[in-house]
Each structure stands twice: as structure tokens, then as C-alpha cells.
Amino acid sequence: MELLGSWGFAVWIPFLTGLTTASYSEDQCSWRGSGLSQAVKNVEQVWLRCAEGSVEWLYPAGALRFTLSPRLPWSAMGPGESNRSPVSACVKQDPHWGGAQLYLERDGVLELLVGDEGETPGPAHVRCFSAMTGERLALFLQATPHQDISKRIAAFRYELRGDWTAQPSVNTDPISSKGACRPCNNTEILMAVCTSDFVVRGNIRSVEKDLDRGAAVIKVSATRVYRQKFALFPDSGRLTRSGEIRTPLQCGVRPGAGSFLFTGRVHFGEAWLGCAPRYKDFLKAYEQAKQSLTIPCTLVND
Fold first, then answer.
1. What angle do CA 23, 28, 33 make, to 5 degrees?
2. Using CA atoms, how far apart are residues 250 and 175, in angstroms rounded to an integer?
3. 147 Cβ partners below 8 Å, 6+ apart?
4. Do 177 and 267 touch, CB atoms closer than 8 A?
5. For range 29-41, the mean pLDDT
6. Alpha-carbon distance 61 to 149, whole Å?
7. What are the two backbone dihedrals, phi and then psi, of residue 269, each rounded to the nearest 5 degrees?
8. What are the start-end ranges of the E strands in the chain?
């Protein structure tokens, strides 16, 4: 993963404290508002207290400061982690972004995440960063001057988790990092069954390339859905369900015969591959762990 190069710059912002005004989002997960009702010289303060949500700023004018204070559920924590572990966050801009710039604020210093008109260093439009123990992060959204703001909307989604490996500074998406291609050992496979957002048994129908996003899209026919976050593999009333799982293109995934156990994370509504052993290999490791009383959790088998 590359750090921000020419895109990254720091700005000292000592003026924020005296200009903020209090405001709360309705559900403390998402916020939607208009710059038409905001004083241009004010910085409106908003607290976001959820692990995921969205922001939509119509007709940007002035500035907004979003303090990230999530109450992360245990399911958001990776294996062996505690609530004192670093928390990683990602933001994904709307494709029609315009009229504002989004910064990460850390200790009074701003790092650019999204420029006006949606310019970002990478094709996926996802930027990630980490908060260390005891550190409080904020997102600073500043409108850029335009004569016509009627068609400009600055919107993004955010996610916070405890099991990604983004560095303290701003990086590319951790799910598409080189580590995603490393094969899982038996311990990691068994733990993935316990902690993944989806656990699905199925076959690979095809693999397609998404060159714009640098991802391989695995078309899966699922014969058994053990767990899924959101309707990744919707019930069609047939014997199998269909769905898509993404993985970095550099991993070189190819169609393979036989049944697999697919596990992974949901990232901005999309399934991303974690461990994916052949089902017979998973069963062998699963039975051995049961016999040795080292199994981390149980899975209802066929």
C-alpha cells in the first residue's frame, strides 16, 4: 500500500475550536444536511457514533467536522482483539462527488482524502486510516467556492472495524492489499468460520475482471449459506443461490472445479474474499480440531 504522495499535504487548523457550532445527526450513524441553511464562516460539529453510516451534504457551503466516536460491537473486532486495539476506518465517496474537499483531521493536522470533483489517488475511491489506542479522529469537510452550487453534492459512506491493518496515516483499501492473496492455514480457516461476515459453501461458475477497480469478481453458486451479512446470496426459491465475491486482481484467482467454503468480509455492501479452502479440506481440519478440542466454534454441517 502506498502512502499519499503529491496528493498528501498537511494543514494546521488552530481556528476550529472557536468556530464550531453544535449539531447532532438524527440516528448518530448518518447525517444529511444542506449548506443553504449554514453560516459560511461557521464549522458545524457533528458526532457519528456508529460503526458504519453515510453523510450527504447538499449545496456545500462553509465546513463540517465529523467526530468519529463509534461504539463498535464485538462482531467488528478481529480474533484475539480487545476494545483497546487500534480501529481502522474507510471512507468511500459517491461517484458524483462535487463542491467540497474531505480531510482526515489528526492532532490539528489535515490530510486530504477526497479533492473537489472527487479526485482521489486511486481508482477505487476508497481511502482508509487507523486510530491508535486513545486517539480521536475526525473528518473535516470543507466546501470549495463555486458560482453555481445547485448541482453539487458531497456524499460518502464510512466504515470502522477492528480487524483491518491500515497504517496510522492514509492508505489505500486494506482489503485489496497484498496480504489478501496469502493462503490461510487451518487455524485461520477455522477462525474465519467464526468471525467472517459470510460463510458460504458453493462452486465457482466464472471469474470476471473489473479492471477499473483492480478486482476479480467471482461468480458463485451457493449450495449452503451458513451466515451472511445483508442479502449477498438472496434466496431465489431454487436449490442454489447466486452471488458475487470480490478479491484483488493480483491474486490471480481462476475458476476451479469442486466445492469450496467461502468466507470473508462485507465492505461497503460488497463481499470480499477471506479464506476459501476446498470444502473437503475444511472438513478434514474441522474434524481434527473437534477431536483435539481446539475448535474455536461449531458449524452446522450438511
1. 50
2. 12
3. none
4. no
5. 80
6. 9
7. 80, 0
8. 10-12, 20-22, 31-34, 43-48, 52-58, 63-68, 87-93, 100-106, 109-114, 126-131, 137-143, 153-161, 198-210, 215-228, 241-248, 260-267, 270-273
3-state helix, strand, coil in the chain (%, to 5): 15, 40, 45
Q: Above pLDDT 70, what percent of the chain? A: 73
Q: Which among 187, 47, 69 is positioned nearest to 134, based on CA atoms? A: 69
pLDDT over threshold 80, residue 76: no
Mean pLDDT over each residue of the chain, to the nearest integer? 79
Going by their DSSP bridges, the two strands 10-12 and 109-114 should be labelled as: antiparallel
What pLDDT, in 10s, does the model give residues 178-224? 567 888 999 999 999 998 999 999 999 999 998 877 889 999 999 99
CB 149 within 8 A of CB 138: no
**pTM score above 0.70:** yes
- C-alpha to C-alpha distance for 293 and 41, rounded to whole angstroms: 63
Residue 79 has pLDDT above 60, yes or no: no
Grid coordinates of 118:
472527487
